[in-house]
Amino acid sequence: MRLSLIAASTLAALITLPALAEEAAAPSPVTGNFSVVSDYRFRGLSQSYKLPAVQGGIDYVSPIGVYAGTWLSSISGNQYMNGASLEWDMYGGYRGTIVEDLSYDVGGLYYYYPGAHYPNAAKTKYNNFEVYGALTYKWITAKYSHTLTNFFGTKNETYGGACEYAVVGGNADNCFTAEPGNSKGSGYFDLSANFPIAEKLTLNTHVGHQTVKNYSKLAYTDWKLGVTYDLSGWALGAAVIGTNAKKGFWYACEVSDANSCKKIGENTLVLSVSKTF
Question: What pLDDT, in 10s, does the model give residues 42-70?
Fold first, then answer.
């Protein structure tokens, strides 16, 4: 998402000299993006069963700072069951400048998983809505996201009485109570910095912490260290991503084989290719 310049005036539009007409033209307020990643990681956790994913989106940013956009990614049906294996994000907000080099961003984001639901009698949806606020100083951004719904469907009917899964290294005696409650009000704090270290080369760093209200066993910290290289408008990325998420709670298994599972928060190297247009 980028702030756009104010559109050229009617008078400027009447100028017929080609060079002047090009200078007067304003960039489009609409941009698109496309990427392929070796593993789709969201807050350090794989959403694609540690397999590649295809992603893309479109954004609109008005001259006054109001923005809206949508973004989609392929995900794993082993993790988001009974659906289209698709994550569809819709968001909007406002960003502006406080003083030179210091800006802010506030908005809301809805995560939608078409058709997907937990395998419980109520068919609880994974869908999630968050509001967020961020401050950016030069290359450094601090952001907090707060859920207004249950955290991706986490509540009594989906996690009540759940225990760590011993097959992936969990303690089978470590369980939630039968009715731990809902998870509205969960939060995620994110601190990231993207430093230019050479021509066309950027160092990407991040650390974040996820809390889940009434479900402290699900809390974890994630981190990222990587680089991005600009190759003729294509961004080539490589990053080491990891978490300290409890393996026995943060895992995914094959729908057809409950004993064929993956620990989705393990440290990994993620490669990516992306393009903004």
Answer: 999 999 999 999 999 999 999 999 999 99
Domain boundaries, the chain: 10-276
**pTM for this structure?**
0.89
CATH number for the domain whose boundaries are 10-276:
2.40.160.40
Beta strands in 62-171 (DSSP E): 66-74, 86-99, 102-112, 128-137, 140-147
Burial (CB < 10 A; 0-12, 13-18, 19+), residue 29, is middle
Pull the structure tokens for residue 114: 């078409």
Q: pLDDT-based confidence at 27, cuts 50/70/90?
A: confident
Residue by residue, what is the 3-state secondary structure of 211-256? ECCCCHHHCEEEEEEEEEEEECCEEEEEEEEEECCCCCCCEEEECC
Side chain identity at 31, as an amino acid letter?
Answer: T
- For 200, half-sphere exposure in the C-beta direction (CA atoms, 13 angstrom radius) is 8
Look at residues 199, 195, 263, 264 and name the one whose alpha carbon lies nearest to residue 43.
264
